[in-house]
Amino acid sequence: MATISQPILPFPSPPNPTTVHHHHHHHLFSALTSASSHTHLKQIHAQILRSGLDRSNSLLLKLVISSCALSSSLDYALSVFNQISRPETHLSNRFLRELSRSVEPENTLLVYEKLRRDGRGVDRFSLPPLLKAASRLSALVEGMEIHGLASKFGFDTDPFVQTALVGMYAACGRISEARMLFDKMSQRDIVTWNIMIDGYCQSGLFDDVLPLFEDMKASDVEPDEIIFSTILSACGRAGNLTYGKAIHEFITEKNILVDPHLQSALVSMYASCGSMDMAQNLFDKLSPKNVVASTVMVSGYSKLGQVEAARLIFNQMVAKDLICWSAMISGYAESDWPQEALKLFHEMQVSGIKPDQVTMLSVISACAHLGALDQAKWIHMFVDKNGFGEALPVNNALIDMYAKCGSLERARDVFNRMYRKNVISWTSMISAFATHGDASNALKLFRQMKTENVEPNWVTFVGVLYACSHAGLVEEGRKVFTSMVNEYNIMPKHEHYGCMVDLFGRANLLREALELVEKMPLAPNVVIWGSLMAACRVHGEFELGEFAAKRLLELDPNHDGAHVLLSNIYAKERRWGDVGEVRKLMKHRGIYKERGCSRIELNNAIHEFLMADRNHKQADEIYTKLDEVVNELKLVGYAPNTRCVLVDLEEDEKNEAVLWHSEKLALCYGLMSEEKGTCIRIIKNLRICEDCHTFMRLVSKVYEREIIVRDRTRFHHYKDGLCSCKDYW
């Protein structure tokens, strides 16, 4: 049988190691590019090690960069970078750029230190990310060191390095150094101009932004939407509506595309400058409405006291962040709507938004304005429970809150427990004593403050002078005023002169008060004439009172208090014709006397009463109680003082008018509802009248109740038939 020979096939040649190595390298590099998780990266890292490619700097750097992109934690990326043996400078620079953009920019400087220790050089491309990290950290010392390095190696002539240096100094608050470098630059691009302009904005030097923008327009650099947004922000924060409008016109004339970001900046500028018509017009054209623009509209309307308009925009917002909630709460707190502020704060909590310190300060302010002690206690508990208890501004606000809620003891307790105090802390406590009529402790604390080398500011002196004025301490007040000028070199403001006029006026030194008004270097304002006018009313000095009222009306023709007091002066002299003329003028101008209103807090609810109010659900029982109290007080000598009823009525009608004052109704409701022995706390929006003051004193004795009334200017603590003001208010 014939044998058929088989062809001999050649053995396959062994694979080329270089080709395989290259294939693995390419495969792993692609895998790193498409990795979607940190776990995936670690698996690829294991393959790199198994493939013997762990000395490939390009692969390891790609692993580092991918790790930075997939995780906010840089621990893994840093550990891998440390395995790279003598990385080339261009590879190090890539890592430095990634680190400078990360949430932990301090690692940029740490890696830079390692590179320096390892003897690895840096080039001009290394410096911008290092300076960017220093900027984000406000690390001035490190930034200046890098500046020195740039100068040493001649990198400081590079425009990118120069721009980064300008940004670093501006971010560290060294704006003059930033401007010096900026002015020396031979090439300035749009980024450099924007950094310098933004630097002025961040330093609060808004008025310097506008001339710089004029310089930019004179150069060959065309501003972009980022520059315009920055400039408009500066105009808004400086309140420069004229220049803001000019920028808007420039944008229109140059046919610059107004994108949503720039549109929002225009809305913000107009709203911040109080031009709400223009802001609303631009806001209406903005679609969709973003949170930033909506929030600035809320703030703009709130600052003008138009809280209903602010709330309308707030309610239309689909998504609300903390800043927006805080803006609306602040709007209510500052616009005499404290209950709405607290209500909205509770709604914010229900929605799951956690407050920050800014929110809490608005909430505390609202509670202080409301004067509700139970609410104040709850807010204080919330502050401690949620980690705000150590914040100095919050503690300062708590002192003021407790003082305005009638609890001087709790205000003092907050003050005494503070391990760190500043001048505001001391001033808040001094003012608390002053408004509660405790001049002795106010002055004692003022002396202690000086002993502890805390320098008082002008607000501190307002508090001390206020204490002297409300206690009739004329000579002490003179000494304090003199020391403020001679010892502390503080130039007196209207507030200080107002306190001195009030001090002399309350002490019936009216001619001395007038002499001070005539000699003071500042033009007397509404408060100064108002203080003199009020003192004249109290002491029956009608001629001087009429003079002061007329001076006041020259400054503010629509001042309701001046018209009312002028009418009251005429009424006391029974000049009913002149009373009629004043009231006719008030009606013609739409000026109305502020209605007396009193609040009392019971069982976590605020009950509000107006004069002769019948709206309360227990009105019948309240008036029955009032009749009972009046009869009890008459047994100890009470007779309604109708001299404060300054309208032409029959005597019986005057009796009813004075007995139906809002604070009496609130007091009777408190007597009905509060347990015997508890303190009754009332907030009155106007100065308490002579009859109500006597009424409160007698009730405190006959019913053995402590009563605290906060009126427009001070607190009255009634106990055992006496008042803390010693009938001097």
Structure commentary:
With 729 residues, this protein is mainly alpha-helical. Among the domains are: 386-589, Serine Threonine Protein Phosphatase 5, Tetratricopeptide repeat; 598-723, no CATH class. It is built from 38 helices and six strands. A hairpin with a 2-residue loop joins β1 and β2 (605-610). PPR repeats lie at residues 189-223, 290-320, 321-355, 422-456.
Give the secondary structure arrangement, pairings included.
Elements lengths: L16 H18 L3 H13 L6 H14 L4 H7 L7 H13 L4 H12 L9 H11 L2 H13 L6 H13 L3 H10 L5 H13 L3 H13 L6 H14 L2 H13 L6 H13 L3 H10 L5 H13 L3 H10 L5 H13 L3 H13 L6 H14 L2 H13 L6 H13 L3 H10 L5 H13 L3 H13 L6 H14 L2 H13 L7 H13 L3 H10 L6 H14 L2 H14 L4 H13 L3 H14 L7 E6 L2 E6 L8 H16 L16 H9 L2 H12 L6 E5 L5 H13 L4 E4 L4 E5 L2 E2 L6
Parallel strand pairs: 3-4
Antiparallel strand pairs: 1-2, 1-3, 4-5, 5-6
